[in-house]
Amino acid sequence: MKKIIEAGSKWSNVVAKGKAVRFTALEDGANISLLLYNAKNTTDRYNMPDSLKAQHTSKFTKGNILMTDNGRAMASIIEDSSGWHDPIGGYSTRAGTDSRYGETTFQKLLNDYYRSGEENFVKELMRHGLTKRDLVPNINLFSKIYADEAGSMHFDPEHAKAGDTVTLRLEMDSLMIISNTPNPQDPAADFPSVPVKMEVFDVNEADEHDYCVNYHPENRRAFENTWEYHSLLL
């Protein structure tokens, strides 16, 4: 499957274990906000604090895995050209979008109004029987947020370049929800959203020698939890 996620748009579907999803930025300044839920049990979903704590990191890149609430490996980053993806910046809101870029509404501008990540996420969650209560911290692909020596956080506006790619391998059947909306930490004065290409294809599943399995000791434990989980399914 190949699809262009246009600026401001959203997408959701279940992506099966053993599939990979490659995102390619088609212009500078891309940001894809992403949520993941176990398709067979949506109460088990991507857990940002555990994923960061277990891997001793505040960014994601090749080798990192996304862990669930139950300590399972949900998805792995198997390829990455940019070297940094943001797990801490959050998603944009209606109030924040209006405040930063000016108030816009569908009634006045139809599909040209500025969408927020929160609105896009909630609409797609509802398609799958979930609600706003199921929102959790998201991942912002292609964005870089770092802290200086004083502890202040900074958004790097030069990080995301046209042609950058990142590939996620699904380690379990997962509901993937995507919003192509700005990182709320992006200081740009104009609504900074650009098209991103998404490709889904088959890939070899992880084994004992896999790069992501061995990237960090806690990664192996998470994969072992996932392998045990699958071994007990009918």
From TrEMBL:
Residues 4-175 form the DUF1989 domain. It comes from the Bacteria. It holds the Pfam family DUF1989. NCBIfam families: urea_degr_2. This is DUF1989 domain-containing protein.
